[in-house]
Structure prediction request, 197 residues.
Amino acid sequence: MQLYDLELSGNCYKIRLFSALLSIPMEKVTVDLRKGEHRQADFLALNPLGQIPVLVDSEVVLRDSQAILVYLARLYGGEDWLPSEAGAMARVVQWLATAANEIAHGPAAARAHDLFGAALDVEQARAGARRIIGIMDRHLRDREWLELGRPTIADIACFPYVALAHEGHVFLTDYPNVVAWIARIKALPGFVNMPGL
Prediction:
């Protein structure tokens, strides 16, 4: 199994973290975005969108970190990480959508602006970050994990860019429940770090 990866990417980190938590062997293939390797024909054959991460598992080629988390959870994580019962699965998947939308356009976008010079409305991104982190903080007021009373891929999908929010000048001082949730994720057996955490 190969992960086309970039160390500073929070989306790639989701996959590295989940594979470490489940002890899934994975070969990392670094994609140098500065050199434009994501726009080369061989990479575009794997992902026509030219984005990372990409997971290659024999004949299965997947793009998008949320899709890859689902694939790995079904293969290796069993019911704990992604339940098959409709209601429980939907509660997990709604957070995958949050990671791909509100978190991507909030804290991830603010970080992309400040760290990599992405051209975007950074104040709008920071406002979106504060909004979604506030929602998460209220949600976590009476629970330890986002759903189901245990860590699931919902937590893994949302964790990186929320934990890295400070790199987009969004600070977690006012969100004690989110800070405690981050600490619980960092305490999981097999946890691996990334730059900035």
Notes: The chain has a mean pLDDT of 96. The chain has two domains: 2-78, 83-186.
